[in-house]
Amino acid sequence: MHIDIITADQTLFSGEADAVTLPGSKGQFQVLNNHAALISSLDKGKVILKTKEGKQSFEVNGGIVEILNNKIVVLA
């Protein structure tokens, strides 16, 4: 699935991931391929990506995530 992690200043990540763990406002949750459509608010925490190259993490101070048709957009 494709993921974009975007801040007001820059794009932190744009590429493919096998799994994404997000710091949701109601608790941490994971997104896998073919996840149902979802919009959620995010709290301060780590966005953890599992890619073919390994794991990567990005610290966010909150934001919003949209998941639709195997595309994830994190506005942090």
Protein topology:
Elements: E1 2-6, E2 11-16, E3 19-24, E4 27-32, E5 38-51, E6 54-68, E7 71-75
Parallel strand pairs: 1-7
Antiparallel strand pairs: 1-2, 3-4, 3-5, 5-6, 6-7
Task: Write a concise keyword list for the protein shown above.
76 residues; mainly beta; ATP Synthase, domain 1; 7-stranded mixed beta sheet
Mean pLDDT: 97
Number of strands: 7
Here the CATH topology equals: ATP Synthase, domain 1
Radius of gyration: 11 Å
Strand order of the largest sheet: 2-1-7-6-5-3-4
Shape: globular
Largest sheet, if any? 7 strands, mixed
Order of helices and strands: EEEEEEE
Query: Do you know the CATH architecture?
Result: Sandwich
Percent strand equals over 45%
How far apart the termini lie comes to 19 Å
- Low-pLDDT segments, ≥5 res: none
User: Could you state the CATH homologous superfamily?
Assistant: F0F1 ATP synthase delta/epsilon subunit, N-terminal
The total tally of domains equals 1
Class of secondary structure makeup: mainly beta
Broad CATH class: Mainly Beta
The helix tally amounts to: 0
In helices, the fraction of residues equals under 10%
